[in-house]
């Protein structure tokens, strides 16, 4: 079962799903890139995932971002992976 994210974790997760780097995210929310890395690691632990790609897939799958970042073919593949 996936654990709930804090508001800050969700904000960072959405930025990761949009393809931003730690440095880019840190400039947007005014914290250090190291802190962003720590937040991402907490998210990965809570959701039992290993990569930013998996994080992006789940953010899309759970509806935290509205527009798909992938083509229809890729979207169908990622939907199956996220289940």
TrEMBL record:
Keywords: Transcription, Transcription regulation. Gene3D superfamilies: Winged helix-like DNA-binding domain superfamily/Winged helix DNA-binding domain (1.10.10.10). PROSITE patterns: HTH_LUXR_2. Signal peptide: none annotated. Residues 1-63 form the HTH luxR-type domain. One of its GO terms (biological process) is regulation of DNA-templated transcription. It comes from the Bacteria. The keyword Ribonucleoprotein does not apply. Transmembrane segments: none annotated. It holds the Pfam family GerE. GO terms for molecular function: DNA binding. SUPFAM superfamilies: C-terminal effector domain of the bipartite response regulators. This is LuxR family transcriptional regulator. It comes from Bacillus cereus.
